[in-house]
Amino acid sequence: MSFPAFFDTCVLYSGVLNDLLLRLAERGAFRPLWSSDVMAELRKNLVRRFPEDAVDRRLAAMQRAFPDAMVDGYENLVSGMLCDPKDRHVLAAAVRANAELLVTFNLRDFPSALTEAFDVEVVNPDDFLLDQLDLFPGLTLRALRDLVDDYSNPEISLEELLQRLSRAGVPKFAQELNSRFME
Q1: Given strand 31-35, what is the order of strands in its sheet?
Q2: How much is the mean pLDDT over the chain?
């Protein structure tokens, strides 16, 4: 079984980053995890920018593709988490799920002094994807090429996909792919 990685809302927000992460998970690189609070926050943020029905389809597709991703029973742990109050539910769910990693852009909200006690490593999505590239280079490149093939309206090139990923917050990953495969 793949190692469990809990995803904070901020990581799942970008469509292109979400697509890549879930493609890698589908291929067995890791087991994605999230909670009802994360999904509710994601929905709230997405409907500010996109039609509600499109957001609901995206979230439903995520849940259909990964029926075991939803973490339950963490609510009683929230008050015991000493991280940033708005993110206590995130750490509580990661702990309840025995996640090895908590993937977030908000590293400062999860100080290692607080998360080490729970044996949860907090990583930036850029570093997470660089690790996936090192561990599974062929799988990662196939996932990217499949994304390029599936994006049809409008069509995009691999170079454009890497630019979008860079803008989505994973510039080191995009640059590494560019240097490895585009030059």
Answers
A1: 70-71, 31-35, 4-7, 101-103, 121-123
A2: 94
Q: What is the pLDDT of residue 179?
A: 86
Q: How many CA atoms lie within 13 A of 85 on its CB side?
A: 0
Q: What angle do CA 20, 128, 138 make, to 5 degrees?
A: 55
Q: What is the pLDDT of residues 12-70, one digit of tens each?
A: 999 999 999 999 999 999 999 999 999 999 999 999 999 999 999 999 999 999 999 99
Q: Could you tell me which CATH class the domain 4-128 is placed in?
A: alpha beta
List the one residue out of 41, 46, 21, 38 whose CA is nearest residue 93: 38
Q: Where in the chain is the domain with CATH 3.40.50.1010?
A: 4-128
Tokens of 173: 């990953």
Whether the model pTM is above 0.90: yes
Q: Report the C-alpha gap between 13 and 92 in whole angstroms.
A: 20
